[in-house]
Amino acid sequence: MCCAPKSLRILAFSPLGEARLAVITYEYPLNERIRTLLRLEDLFERSRHFIARTDPLDHHVALLTLFEILEVAGRADLKSDLLQELERQKQVLLSFRNNPDISEEALAGVLRDIEQAAAALFSMTGRIGQYLRENEWLMSIKQRTGIPGGACEFDLPSYHYWLHRPAEERIGQLAAWTSPLYPLRDGTAIILRILRESGKPQSLSAPLGTFQQMLGGKTAQMLRVRLEPGLPCVPEISANKYVLNIRFLAQNGEDARAKTADWDVGFELTFCNL
Predict the structure, then answer these.
(1) Does 71 share its domain with 207?
(2) pLDDT tens-digit profile of 231-243?
(3) pTM summary value
(4) Do residues 186 and 249 both lie within one domain?
(5) Distances, alpha carbon 100 to alpha carbons 10, 12, 96, 214, in Å
(6) End-to-end CA distance of the chain
(7) In the chain, what are the helix, strand and coil shares in percent, each to the nearest 5?
(8) Maximum Cα–Cα distance for the chain, whole Å?
(9) Which residues contact 7 (CB under 8 A, 6 or more apart)?
């Protein structure tokens, strides 16, 4: 499968942290749709992490994260965007049936994942998260947590009581509030996995911390920059349809001012496109 289409490369995608443990990846979305999906992915991962814990403060963070998911997912066209993209990827994959270079078993597995995600999204009726908005108790907490220090026990005594309920009870309720949004999580995960595996990494160098490349008609929806963690710098990326600029900013805890690295920075660049 050396020439497998990009939609099939997700089969070889390694879970975060399994491969290249020593590499830091910076992802830069080039349109609002991908920016929204990356934010959702980050929020759902944060939610999963804190719901699984047992400390009341962890569950406070989990609830705040749920409110953030509600805001980000409130985009009117998010569900239809996900469904359209899943259908498009499905049609691309179907065209590779009976291709001797493609594993039929692998192809069937990816198609099954896409169909299940699409069916779950389609079953979501009404406004995304409306069941949360109709929960007056949750909305009262959401309103107060928008105020610095607004969730103290004297502001929200019922919430203070809830945080002292058994951890298992809180976990069950958090899961019940969050799980109806999982079709968004699963659809987002499939699309981002396909996107990440769509490009071929290039090993490049930024002389004195600066890199520029004329795009010459090359299109991308997301850029991925990978750096060795020992390099004390982070990328600052700007791009339009004509040119890509990356400036690597030196990181010095004693100096908050951003300065371009004064050494040649080796990095890996990937153009990702659905």
Answers:
(1) no
(2) 999 999 998 888 9
(3) 0.87
(4) no
(5) 19, 18, 9, 37
(6) 19
(7) 50, 20, 30
(8) 67
(9) 89, 92, 93, 110, 194
